[in-house]
Amino acid sequence: MSNKVVNILVPVISIILGLIVGAIVMLVSGYDPVAGYIALWNGIFGDAYAIGETIRQISPYILAGLAVAFAFRTGLFNIGVEGQLMVGWFAAAYVGSAFELPMIIHLPLSLLAAAVAGALWGLIPGILKATLRVHEVIVTIMMNYIALHTVNALIKAVSGGGYKTEKIQPTASLRSDFLSQLTDFSTLHYGIFVALAMVIVTWFILEKTKTGYELKSVGFNDHASQYAGMNVNKNIILAMVISGAFAGLGGAMEALGTFGNMTNRGGFTGIGFDGIAVALLGANSPLGVIFGASLFGSLKYGANNMPNAANIPLEIVSIVIALIIFFVASGYIIRVGLQRLAKKKEAK
């Protein structure tokens, strides 16, 4: 059995196992798993509105997944996507509301502001990792909390003591009347196309450029890369900066598309943390991230239909998602099982 087939089968089997064990959990908890999954399906694909909202939910997950996957591919573990996403959200909301410019300038500028904010938030752990060898997991996870409280303070400052930023100008909006009407007036916006474009950008950087080759090489073996003449420290910093930029753009999807502003937050969005699971489910490949984000976005939005349609609490869906992550993390066991099964078939 080829590695490509195994790489496809592992996440598929993980999802199936997660759904099966999730059904058992529902059954043991006194809920009807059939009714629960029917309600989940209808919440995702039940009508045009549900489909539009599901696709809208997928957009930031793609970018969060790309941020984590890009860092993984370069040998780094970016746990700070959540914080980078929030600073990107604020930057996009501020630039989108504070200036009056033609749309051809204002929208790209707002997206760029989000990317730069996320990149700068990724720059700090990148520098600490490159110069002092401080582990990026520790720094990035701490910077999530710094981002949360910094953004809340900035919102208060720019709003004159209020709890939310001004609404963005129409010239900075990703909203689409066409897509909204097409999906029965959902909040679907052009952000999905921005996210898909970043998938192509990620693939191009990693697979078709000298920089991408160096980044992956440093991730595989920094000592060998240094011996080959590569600047290891520069590549570590660059990897974290690019990863942070993708995360910042994930925040821009919320600022410029879904909400049109940013309010004070009492906690994390969860999108950045879910991006870790999205990347793992997608095997850290750009194309795989699309499928991982589609699954998580669908489950997150479709779950909202389960309490009303099947009287099943949202916590059950969280359990199903956690089970899928568990089986994905146990992918090595599934992989070994598939390889042994293939060897038995070959022996016969």
Question: How would you explain this protein's 3D organization?
Answer:
The protein has about 350 residues and is mainly alpha-helical. It has helices at about 5-30, 35-45, 50-75, 80-100, 105-130, 135-160, 175-180, 190-210, 210-220, 220-225, 230-260, 270-280, 285-300, 305-310, 315-330, 330-345. The protein has a domain at about 60-295. Helix content is about 80%, strand content about 0%. It is globular, with a radius of gyration of 21 Å.
Order of helices and strands: HHHHHHHHHHHHHHHH
**Main sheet properties:** none
Global mean pLDDT: 91
N/C terminus separation? 15 Å
Secondary-structure class: mainly alpha
Total DSSP helices? 16
Number of strands: 0
Unreliable runs, pLDDT <50, ≥5 residues? Answer: none
Shape: globular
Determine the strand fraction and express it as a percent band. Answer: under 5%
As a percent range, the share of helical residues equals over 70%
For the CA atoms, what is the radius of gyration? 21 Å
